[in-house]
Amino acid sequence: MPFLRLTDQVRECVLNACVLGMEFNVKVLSEMLKSDLSSELATGTNSRIWKDLDELRYIFSHVLIKDIIYQRMMSDKLRQLHQLAAEAMEAIFADTMDENALEIARHYEKAGMADKAAVYYDKAGSWFSDKYDFIKVETYLNTALQIREKVLGAEHPETATSLSNLAASYLDQDRHEQAEPLHLKALEIREKVLGAEHPATAASLGNLANLYNDQGKYEQAEPLYLRALEIRQKVLGAEHPDTATSLNNLAVSYRDQGKYEQAEPLHLRALEISEKVLGAEHPGTAASLNNLAILYNNQGKYEQAEPLHLRALDIREKVLGAEHPHTATSLNNLAELYRHQGNYEQAEPLHLRALDIREKVLGTEHPDTIQTINNLMKLYDKMGLPDKSAKYRALLTQEEN
Question: d(Cα 154, Cα 328) in Å, to the nearest integer?
Answer without folding.
Answer: 40
